[in-house]
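Researcher: Here's my situation. A collaborator sent me these components and asked whether they could plausibly form a single complex. I don't have experimental data yet, so a predicted model of the whole assembly would be a useful starting point for our discussion.
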Amino acid sequence: VVAFKEKLVMELSSEQYPDVLLITVQSKRIDASGAIQFKDRMRELTGQTSGRVILDLQHVGFVDSSGLGAIVAAMKQLDPGQMLELAALSPTVEKVFRLTRMDGVFTIHARSSDAIESLKKAN
Amino acid sequence: VPPTGTISLRMKKSPPQQTEIARVHFDADPDCVGTVIDTLLAQIFPSPPGDDVQATFEIALAEVINNIIEHACRYDSSSVIDVRVRWCPGGVQFHFVDSGFEMPAGELPPGDLRDLGCARQDLPEGGFGWFLIRSLTDDLHYSRRGGENHLSFRLQTGAVA
């Protein structure tokens, strides 16, 4: 079997809500191959914000330990007190967070819309 | 109609290799890892195995292959990694071989999980790989033989953590 190379472009899109920046990862993997790119894109997108940041992972089927490290690093790049929340984890991504106990470090939402709706109601 | 004797002879001659699932060689290139895992999973599971088993296989294989590429082959993508996959009781047995650098001190890292009850700025950004591998595999063995690294382990196809 010959394995074909698949160079991933780490594609992130963002939407600004009144107090929340919603970032959606459009790539299907955050792994060793794309971890640095992910961290850099997150720095670009979150550099000017001060509110909550929700990272929507609905399109991401897989995060490896390098990807997990990059998500932790993305949180550490934020201002102190600024939260990075996660939404829509696939079963595999959820398992990586659960096994490494990182599920206790991040607030995790079933869907990003849940988090944004609850915020609208609160306002 | 062929004589029955021929059929019986063929059956006797066919080797009892039904445990062999796949043998795959691939370049030690991080951009190949996703395709390699998809290829292996398609060979092992003709129909999807369920979320938890799928997750176990995806995570363990990615961490093992990433580790070989990073630490044994040190991103030299001209290195080739060889993996043999076969059925074993309760699951699947993997045997990886590469001719990269030896494990430090000739043995597998302990893979302890670091304490996460620290300040945010002190949270670890790495060191999860061997913890995940050790959590998800059974009978994990490493040896250095004839200038090659041999890593073998089992993954369960039944209900797992």
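Model: Some features of this prediction you could bring to your collaborator: Chain B has four helices and five strands. The two ends of chain B are 53 Å apart (CA to CA).
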